[in-house]
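Collaboration report, partner site 2.

Our partner group contributed sequences for two proteins of shared interest, and the home lab folded both. The records are reproduced in the order in which they were received, starting with the first partner submission.
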Amino acid sequence: MKPPDPDNIAETLRIRTSVLDGATATMLAEATAAAHLPLADLLCLEHPKNVEALHKAYLDAGADIISTNTFNANALILEKFYHAKTSEHVVENINRAAASMACQCTRHAAAHDGHRRYVAGIVAPICPKPGDSAEEWLDACQAQMAALAEGGVDLLLAESCYNIAGTRIVAQAAARIAPHYNICTAFSATINDNGTLPMGGELEELLDAVAVASPSAVGLNCCNGPQGFVRLLRKLKTLSPYPTIAYPGAGLPDSAGRYPVNPQDFGQMARTIIAEDLASAIGGCCGTTPAHIAAVAQVVHDSGK
């Protein structure tokens, strides 16, 4: 008999292979453009049904963990798009709405089949410029995390970390916020083919930067797609003391915005990751769809892990 689902996502990551959802922004790009919005995050307030439908599609595809639509929902990042100071209430409203919507979708799915799902509150990656106030960035990160936590997320996931200085600030914010709300943290980096972060820094430095937050998992996402991703994941696995999460993109898009990696090939990558025991959770990033996640879910199911 299958054991009951743990209430704590950290325990789940320790004992079984979970399925993450796929891309958010690329899946919502058409709806974002149709609504004349600069960022997909704003759909959470303006057109929530679009976001809700995407969550449901990923849950139907077999995702155990879905992500909030909050990749840019940080006050200092939003200011760049509005060219004006963003109200604290706007940031709070986006993140709370995104979190509560995702949580409602997981509860509905659990009521249908009794299987516990989790919500990862996506935290914006940051890259402070010379002269920026570290305290302002820290405050902005904490505000986003607090709103996500109050919205009910199970995990704060800082994804696409691409520089060490910004990652340290995000980790410091997580170290302050997560214990207050008794929730878990995780970090995922996007790295170059040579294993370094795009703005400089080695994986060893990344692991040192996030240690202050005592993460439940550390992983890789995007990284130009599955080609070469497994090799990079092997490197992280040898260095990291934490459970690993893996969610590459579907390759680099062509001039028409089409992504080259199909669901079948994406599923084959997941099969390799599982066979080598390289990750505790597998999903997709830019360009992936519910079909890609269904392929991953089938591989995970077949593995029995």
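Second partner submission, folded after the first:
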Amino acid sequence: MSEPREPAPAPALSDVGSIRPLQIWRDVTARVLQSELITMAVVEIPADGLVPAHQHENEQVGLCLAGSLTFTVGQETGELGPGGMWRILAGVRHEVRAGAGGAVVVEVFSPVRDDWAGLEHAPETPPRWPGGS
């Protein structure tokens, strides 16, 4: 088992395509930009991909950039497409399934996602957003 690693110092300005993706779930990847107090991630979920029900101590807000999602937050379930947004308070159970075309979302967490520090990198591929496949 590899040792958890500290997040690499990030430049003040960056491009989503220059960030190596992390494998955050079985087939879900995230390109992560982390500061002292927040984590931002551009997350790609494949067609019919599932982020299983879970909860964490981070508040989370997000925006669907491409594709579609069925999101459950607590007892509320809804369909979201491009422009759809969500807010998840700390400790609230939630899950998401992407539609037939997959989805790309941007999410912001506070405090930072320290639990992602030890994750493995996914294979390098061009990002689906903006303008990818």
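Feedback sent to the partner group on the second submission included the following. Confidence is low (pLDDT under 50) at residues 1-5. The two ends are 33 Å apart (CA to CA).
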